[in-house]
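Intended use. Records like the one below are meant for learning the mapping from a protein sequence to its folded structure. Do not use them to infer anything beyond what is encoded.
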Amino acid sequence: MTVAPQWEQVADDIRAQIESGELRPGDRLPPIDQLRERHRVAASVIRQAVLALQAEGAVRGVPGVGVRVADHEGTVIVLKPPV
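Structure written out for the chain above:
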């Protein structure tokens, strides 16, 4: 039995949260430090998992905002709070 690389396990966990609706389109992913502590891996592992999710269109990096869950078309909805 082959064990998946750590980054793949993290990406699978985040993907499962998206598919279950726990993370919805437009939601921001938790900070790297929080994900690192939850999964007990290095920050580089989290970054690699996020890059994989970006490559498949599940999440998008939004400058100045963070990493957000994309909708089914691969776009991100960012609502700005009222001023």
